[in-house]
């Protein structure tokens, strides 16, 4: 479904050039859920944005569904295949657009017809119900906003969903609801996920395999079973696992 | 308003598009209404508009009727605000002058922010050389004092009220362009713009549907606050004889007429001065109230 | 010994739909201990911390039957008196150091100024104190950091600097509001170690506000669980995983776990009765761990 090879992403120009991702490579099979784990600044979100076409300054090879993607402009077919859910549901919805406006715009841009019926279905799919159709973001809680954002991503009926820390801005009880929703949607629609998170437990719950990133490089790709068994090969991965287990008094 | 309708408007779960829109408007109105001074400003402006609309019926006399026998009369029962050096009734002239003031304010308010919004958002959104070119042009306009530039425009185009308005509008847009560009720069990298891009939205749609609605509110606030300055600039042009031409009862020109007599017959210059003062202040208060409603940064908490 | 005693604390905000009660009758005592306050967003946990320091902005209204710092009432003190308590006797560390540090002042100047504001004294002495504090929070090159500006330091460093600044005047109580949630896990441990040591060595009382149950269970001595502006359960931190209140249990269960994979996460079913039911407490008189 997704192949990334020798991906380099940088920002700015020399001498102030920052290399955010260095020679990253991984593949994700159709229907698989793949995690990208690392601390802030490790380049995990940057990879996602480069795949989505939100960053122009990259080199290497990105293939989606067997097709190499263009360096800059992506065509409509690309956006029908790949969609993204952002980290902060408070920043990813336009403050002046109602749920109705957000979803109908997404549907129109994808050239869909029968907008009313589709909006109702999308809202049902993400567990909001039709009563939410005409609300504005400020009338929604964080979890409800994230559901709207997921509905927007689903509007295009994509096959690959990029999830950028979709629950890190939410309370744990809401996180559980959203993670369950994402699992259900993957089963129902046969979606492929690439999920970025700093939380190993979340990635362990959601993903089949994961890549551990440190300072722009992928240091280890492993299965979640290996993660659970503590069979990490790299020191850095072991550090992350130890740290995520909580606080041990020094 | 009955409680049922109020609840319908304030509902957090609107059932139709219309209810959502009306609810948002009503929320804004409640915020605005809580600001007493802004309400005062709004009332003054409504009175001004009513005065302009009903000028022929409200004014006791014709604004042009001269009566040289009764020139420079102090305020009295016959002439509430006195008469000027040609014996014209100052009240009638003020009432008719409100039309000119509204015309100036309205036209400038329509032209300048639109130019500013367009140039600023395009510059901020496109970036690169487009931004450079547009912003350097803006800088050039900003480098001149506003009134001087307007004077130059009027001098080149000829003295008339339309040209004065045009000159004011052409000199008033650069600050709006700056403001709109700054807002665009912060909005441009927001996640919701990225999300719209991922839906396949082109630059034009992003600009019109996503960026403009967010810039417009702060522009409206800014325009309302700037209106006082525009009225004063218009009065300044009138005062210098470059705006409205005699015998039009433009407030600035009326002050200019009265300045010869300012020591002995104070009301001739003072009355239009007071009118300008009140209307300018009303716009400022209104702008403050609009900021409470529209500016998301100020309206929080 | 009780440092801080709060009874029936309420914080209300007037809104168009009537008054909104952010905190509804919170009571607790704080000794020389690490007290965790846990809850979801909107549970009133941050507002509780802010109201102790008199940082609730109007039109918010703070009332309480009692709010005493070592026997002296600090409820709704005038701003001038509150300023003397804030920083000198009770300090606060916020979530994101970026918003708490002045961007146009060097870090050294800020610490020195904060210290002299509360303790007075000569500049040179204050400077030495600042250097000591930076060293105390494990900053390797305090001389260099003193000259730096906030944008030149990393998030973890910024948070340590904030802690240094807050601890320079030797407060009796530190209120930490999500002090580590903006930090990476590796830095987080370091910052927690620093706070831990300060509590132990100086006998400070720590109110640790967090949404992270596991962290609080491991770091604190005692935990208050807040829901909808009230404390629903009080228990010793080591017993957190044996919590009895359905809300606490629900929160714990909804966390995904690496060691126990499950297909679906249990979702919290909120009950209206949680809003007003009696709090579950082991015992209301607090057991202050002696060996701190």
From TrEMBL, chain A:
**CDD domains (alphabetical):** ABC_NikE_OppD_transporters
Q: What is the recorded function of this protein according to its Swiss-Prot or TrEMBL entry?
A: Part of the ABC transporter complex GsiABCD involved in glutathione import. Responsible for energy coupling to the transport system.
Report the PROSITE patterns cross-referenced here.
ABC_TRANSPORTER_1, ABC_TRANSPORTER_2
Native organism: Paracoccus haematequi
What GO molecular function terms would the record report? ATP binding; ATP hydrolysis activity
Determine if Translocase is one of this entry's keywords: yes
Q: What is its main location?
A: membrane
Xref: SMART domains: AAA
Membrane topology value: Peripheral membrane protein
Q: Name one Pfam family in it.
A: ABC_tran
Q: What is its EC number?
A: 7.4.2.10
Annotated catalysed reactions: glutathione(out) + ATP + H2O = glutathione(in) + ADP + phosphate + H(+)
Q: What protein name applies here?
A: Glutathione import ATP-binding protein GsiA
Q: Which family does it belong to?
A: Belongs to the ABC transporter superfamily. Glutathione importer (TC 3.A.1.5.11) family.
Q: Which SUPFAM superfamilies match?
A: P-loop containing nucleoside triphosphate hydrolases
For the protein in the UniProt heading, the enzyme class is translocase
Query: What are the record keywords, sorted?
Result: ATP-binding, Cell inner membrane, Cell membrane, Membrane, Nucleotide-binding, Translocase, Transport
The regions listed as transmembrane in this protein's record are none
Subunit: The complex is composed of two ATP-binding proteins (GsiA), two transmembrane proteins (GsiC and GsiD) and a solute-binding protein (GsiB).
Automatic annotation (TrEMBL), chain B:
Q: How does it sit in the membrane?
A: Multi-pass membrane protein
Keyword annotations from UniProtKB, A to Z: Cell membrane, Membrane, Peptide transport, Protein transport, Transmembrane, Transmembrane helix, Transport
Every ABC transmembrane type-1 domain range: 98-287
Cited Pfam families: BPD_transp_1, OppC_N
Q: Which CDD domains match?
A: TM_PBP2
Is Membrane there in the keyword field?
yes
Q: What is its main location?
A: membrane
Coiled-coil blocks: none
One GO BP annotation is: protein transport
The membrane-spanning stretches of this chain are 37-58, 100-127, 147-173, 219-245, 265-287
Q: Name one GO molecular function term.
A: dipeptide transmembrane transporter activity
Q: Which InterPro entries match?
A: ABC_transport_permease (IPR053385), BP-dependent_transpt_permease (IPR050366), MetI-like (IPR000515), MetI-like_sf (IPR035906), OppC_N (IPR025966)
Q: Which domain of life is it from?
A: Bacteria
The protein's location, in the record's own words, is: Cell membrane
Tell me its family: Belongs to the binding-protein-dependent transport system permease family. OppBC subfamily.
Which protein, by its recorded name, is this?
Answer: Putative D,D-dipeptide transport system permease protein DdpC
In its UniProt entry, the species of origin is given as Paracoccus haematequi
UniProtKB/TrEMBL annotation, chain C:
Which CDD domains did the record assign?
Answer: ABC_NikE_OppD_transporters
Span of domain ABC transporter? 6-253
Q: Name one GO cellular component term.
A: plasma membrane
Which keywords has UniProt assigned to this entry? ATP-binding, Cell membrane, Membrane, Nucleotide-binding, Transport
Q: Where in the cell is it found?
A: Cell inner membrane
Q: What is its main location?
A: membrane
Membrane topology of the entry: Peripheral membrane protein
Indicate the family of this protein: Belongs to the ABC transporter superfamily.
Q: Please name the source species.
A: Paracoccus haematequi
Q: Name one GO molecular function term.
A: ATP binding
Q: Which GO terms describe its biological process?
A: peptide transport; transmembrane transport
Protein name according to UniProt: Oligopeptide transport ATP-binding protein OppD
Keyword Kinase annotated = no
InterPro entries from the UniProt entry: AAA+_ATPase, ABC_Ni/Peptide_Import, ABC_transporter-like_ATP-bd, Oligopep_ABC_C, P-loop_NTPase
* ATP-binding listed as a keyword: yes
